[in-house]
Amino acid sequence: MIVLTRLNRAPFAVNPDLIERIQVTPDTTLVMVDGATFVVVETMEAVIDRIVDYRARVIATAAGRRVAEGED
Fold first, then answer.
1. Is the CB of residue 45 less than 8 Å from the CB of residue 37?
2. Which of 36, 39, 50, 57 has the most CB atoms less than 10 A away?
């Protein structure tokens, strides 16, 4: 999950795997695969950076568990 901020400054978490697209109109709007939309204060670039960081953490966590379990 990544944490973003609604326009009313309320933080919320969203599963980045369910984001279909991000558009700027001029506010940054997330369009989810189920058609739901969320308008956030973060820029499109910031949202993409958070998604990249999230996916890197997932990969690093999985790799760390493989090492801890003695797998190659």
1. no
2. 50
